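Progress narrative, work stream C.
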Amino acid sequence: MSNNLKITSSKHNLQILHEDNHLIVINKRVGDIVQGDKTGDKPLSDVVKEYIKDKYNKPGEVFLGVVHRLDRPTTGIVVFARTSKALTRLNELFKNRETHKTYWAVVKNKPSKKEDKLVHFLKRNEKNNTSKAHLKEVPESKIASLDYSIIKELQHYTVLEIALHTGRHHQIRAQLSAIGSPIKGDLKYGAERSNPDGGIHLHARKLQFMHPVSREPLMIEAPTPDDPIWNAI
């Protein structure tokens, strides 16, 4: 929707999916940057700190730990730790792959198989901030694997559900591009044109993990952005 272009998150419009004493989970918008970088744009972590400070009238600095990141043009679930205890344990969960991450991706070219496991060796290029997927191991590459399945076919696009097994730089984007199915709007990885809002149609849809303190199982789901293609799903 044109009225949705370039809306970034602020403390007033944060899309909060879960909040308790130890963690807060946000549905990230296109263009939100999770952690500060060389652009100097205000990161989502600072926005969440402002929200917590206001809501709980906290004096002084608010503690907030960044546990993982999502690429700037991607939308969906981002988890932040509100206590150092939660941060330590969440870091362990993510490092040991004790989290189940599900993504949705919209691609123009339908993959040849309805479902498949993709295994590549990803090599990162720091200069142009991309990763290239190779079928065989190359120097300085890291193994990357995911499962995908087609969940919906639209008139011009195909919607994939992706279960991520490794968390490599631009992994889903590079692997789908390698099989000839780049994500809609992802110019960096072979899409024909960009999306009007500068985003790509990749959404961190679902995250399952054990709560770092209560040890209760958590299943968080993020609504897709409001645009005609996501709405058709």
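Work stream C, second folded protein:
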Amino acid sequence: MDPRLREDDEGMMVNDPNMTDLDRALAFAIPARSARGRIVRLGTALDEVLAAHAYPPAIEKLLAEALTLAALIGSTLKDSSGQLTMQTRTDNGVVQLLVCDYRGGEVRGYIEYDADKLAEAPAEPSLFALFGAGYLAITFDMASSNERYQGIVPLDGDTLSQAAQSYFTQSEQIPTMIRTGMAKGPDGRCISGGLFLQHLPEGEDGRERLHTKLDHPEWEHVATLGSTMSADELTDATLPLETLVWRLFNEEEDVRILADIPIVRGCRCDPDYIKGVISKFPLEERQSMADETGFIIVDCAFCAKKFPVPVDA
């Protein structure tokens, strides 16, 4: 039995409001409709990333959306050691750099932005206000095959999610629908959720790279159902992800749950690795990098930690 469900007085299974469903991705497939999907909800993993940076609301909301997208898209990788990286490129925008990645159930990300330009922007800036004429690059690194794929699309539309959806439609030519949402929980912490639906060729259960024809009558039905999913449902931690899938596709004959993937906040900065990299520099260069205490301070942009390395490391 799902631990987030309980039996009521009449013997019916209902959601237990005292339990929360956070920090996992649920993979599913609808074979009769040649479709696959992911649904994800982030809580602690998201909050840990955001808490390390103390971003203003507009930047916090943007990073929450980007991390949700990274979990949605990254969890589609069959290569468990593969990595998905999302990075924006912009010309003179408020956001100078956005980087998120996913690997093995771990998400991380950060944003560099111009505080002065943000102060001049609206309280809820549009995607264009944040990026200007920007671009989104999505990169798949397949560790098992040592292959890399990358696609770049303009940051058009109202949200980062729409730009990511355009990536699959334009670069991959795969009918795709993405919905995301973010909310504040009762304790003031952030909760985000997302839904990812994608068409597959008949008889194919999915792989890292897909190319399909452009006429898909069954896809329109799937996309229509998916479009009814609200941001409130995606971010309601008392609603199990299985319940959301059932709400969308309960009339389908066969909906298969494929995988349950825990999501955590991850950062791969390692003190010993950093020390080893610094030690490769000549002594004179290390001395020029050191502060007045004799330490070289190395910052990790992802986790916002500082690592002091002695010059004679």
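Confidence is low (pLDDT under 50) at residues 1-5, 203-213. No further action is required on this item.
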